[in-house]
Sequence to fold (169 residues):
Amino acid sequence: MKIKTLDTLEDVQKLDGLLGDYIRFVCDDLERAAGLTFDADVLLANTVRSLSKVIPPEGQTFVAETEDDDILGMVFLRPSGNHDMEIKRLYVVPEGRGTGAGRALVEAAMTAARATGARSLRLDTAKNLKAAIGLYEDMGFAYRAPYPESDHFSDDELLPYLVFMEKRL
Fold:
């Protein structure tokens, strides 16, 4: 497995199929767990519109690939307030789960966040995504209160189903 950095908007936009898979996965999971329904197409369009925040100079995008260049997963890194960075859209395809791809992607994001001089790395995730939460806990992330820079800070419908975490760098 290798971790690759995507440096251009055009390269990140090529992840639209993977982003769609991620968004459908999260939407389906929230519907099963909490009965919440979201329009996946609207969420995908909103994500695509904000991709400039996850490429240099603001942020970064990482993908995990097999030696044959098949994508196993992705993660975005973007600014989150003064001196902090935020992990967004960590997703590993079903065939890539259990390979260490998720951990490698989070490690790449942590290394990049440190290189920017960030004080901490933040994230929000759905409470029912136990594998992701377990990975974050194992990597030293601690629970924290919601932070204003989160996309979901003011989302009263979704907020009760989320956890917020942070790792000091």
